[in-house]
Design brief:
globular; about 220 residues; mainly alpha
């Protein structure tokens, strides 16, 4: 059976897409370094090496551009989750996710979750692509949390949403920058951050039962 292949994009279309990808990459980098409020469209255009008018051929304004950048960030997270080894236990997957989020923060990458009071958070509320991607990510992570709770690896009395929020909130935790300013190395900071976050989430070993009456050894 013959099938029609998709027509190859024209050179002009390929160049248009390559420039758009470069714009999004630059926006991601500047979002991580400067934040949404401080970053400007002029800086993004300068980083790519194009005129601001050329940037506006791809994005209507700063809100649209940064929404596209955040979709790109979530896409990176989805690829990271896809590439985790299949043999890992649920808790190991969550540990790997947490460490990856922390590494992004130490590298001044764009945080996965913008501040809830920021103008960027307001813009993302109307971005269907970002919302759909985050819903898919949340569903996958909640599945791992439920699996870890069923295996008694995470505290069962905590709602899965609480554990999910605790993990994702670490991507904006100021503790990492504070420890770096105090002279600690990144590897040690990551170990401490993972330990202090998961330490309150993992199931503690069952304590020995106390006797309700005086008896030897009680």
């Amino acid at each position: 059976m013959n099938t029609l292949s998709q027509p190859r994009p024209s050179f002009k279309e390929q160049m248009h897409r390559a420039r758009e990808d470069a714009i999004v990459e630059a926006a991601c980098r500047l979002l991580g370094e400067k934040g949404f409020e401080t970053m400007t469209v002029d800086e993004v255009a300068c980083a790519v090496g194009i005129a601001k008018a050329s940037l506006y051929k791809h994005f209507a304004g700063k809100d649209d551009l940064c929404a596209a950048a955040m979709v790109h960030v979530v896409g990176r997270l989805q690829r990271f989750l896809d590439e985790l080894p299949e043999g890992l236990q649920a808790l190991q997957r969550l540990q790997a996710l947490l460490r990856w989020l922390l590494e992004l923060q130490l590298g001044d990458e764009t945080p996965l979750l913008p501040s809830r009071n920021s103008a960027l958070a307001q813009a993302l509320r109307t971005c269907d692509a970002y919302r759909a991607s985050m819903e898919e990510v949340h569903a996958r992570i909640l599945g791992w949390i439920a699996e870890a709770q069923a295996a008694a690896q995470l505290r069962r009395e905590l709602p899965p949403e609480v554990i999910l929020c605790a993990l994702l909130a670490r991507s904006t935790d100021p503790m990492l920058a504070m420890l770096r300013e105090r002279g600690h190395g990144d590897a040690q900071i990551l170990d401490w951050a993972v330990a202090t976050c998961l330490g309150g989430l993992v199931s503690a070993p069952a304590a020995p039962e106390r006797c309700s009456w005086p008896a030897p050894g009680c």
